């Protein structure tokens, strides 16, 4: 019998666009450790969601951005890691800074949009990036 997952954890993700590039991080922690993904993480108690998005972006990449809109809410259910996240994904426009991996990110860099499909395994992440590009 499989152990039930704990209650979902609210978290944020940020699609930070700079021209024809998107900011990605290589995950340094489970779930999906080692995979390329969006910067983001858990919302702290008492923190506004949009503030969490900008904080996580800054902590994981050193980049400053302006939130341009809410994209979608995604269930990140990862039974192998024993986790369920409710991911609130935002679009953002790069303002300043060059990516430097920090916090939970093993790597951080801007990637040409035409390379996203080859780098990102999770279809939901690819869908969210496509949505950000289509709505900018």
Automatic annotation (TrEMBL):
Known EC number: 3.6.1.55
Keywords: Hydrolase
One of the record's GO molecular function terms: 8-oxo-7,8-dihydrodeoxyguanosine triphosphate pyrophosphatase activity
Domain Nudix hydrolase intervals: 7-134
Superkingdom field: Bacteria
Cofactor: Mg(2+)
Keyword Hydrolase: yes
A family per Pfam: NUDIX
InterPro entries noted in UniProt: Nudix_hydrolase, NUDIX_hydrolase-like_dom_sf, NUDIX_hydrolase_CS, NUDIX_hydrolase_dom
CDD domains: NUDIX_ADPRase
Family: Belongs to the Nudix hydrolase family.
Protein name: 8-oxo-dGTP diphosphatase
Organism: Brevundimonas lenta
């Amino acid at each position: 019998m499989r152990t039930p997952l704990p209650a979902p954890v609210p978290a944020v993700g940020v699609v930070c666009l700079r021209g024809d590039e998107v900011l990605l991080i290589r995950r340094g922690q489970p779930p999906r450790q080692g995979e390329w993904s969006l910067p983001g993480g858990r919302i702290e108690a008492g923190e506004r969601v949009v503030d969490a998005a900008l904080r996580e972006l800054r902590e994981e990449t050193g980049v400053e951005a302006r939130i341009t809109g809410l994209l979608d809410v995604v269930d990140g259910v990862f039974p192998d890691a024993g986790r369920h996240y409710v991911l609130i994904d935002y679009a953002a426009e790069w303002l300043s800074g060059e990516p430097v991996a920090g916090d939970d990110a093993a790597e951080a860099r801007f990637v040409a949009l035409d390379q996203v499909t080859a780098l990102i395994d999770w279809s939901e992440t690819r869908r969210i990036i496509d949505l950000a590009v289509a709505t900018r």
